[in-house]
Amino acid sequence: MKLLIKSAVIVSKGHPLNGKKTDILIENDVITSISNNIDIKDAEVFTADNLHVSIGWMDMRANFCDPGFEHREDLHTGLNAAAKGGFTAVALVPSTHPPVHSKSQVEYILKNTQGTITQVFPMGCISQNREGKDMAEMYDMKLAGAVAFTDDKRPVQNAGLLLRALQYNKLFNGLVINFAEDKYIAADGKVNEGITSTKLGLKGIPALAEELMIERDIYLAEYADAPLHFTCISAARSVAIIKKAQQKGLKITADVAAHNLYFDDSVLENFDSNYKVKPPFRTQTDIAALIEGIKDETISVICSDHSPLEIELKDREFDHAGFGIIALQTTFATANAALKNKVKLEDWLETITRNPRKILGIEIPEIKEGVKANLTLFNPDLNWELKPEDIVSKSKNTPFIGKKLNGKPLAIINKGKFNIC
Question: What pTM, to 2 d.p., does this model score?
Answer without folding.
Answer: 0.97
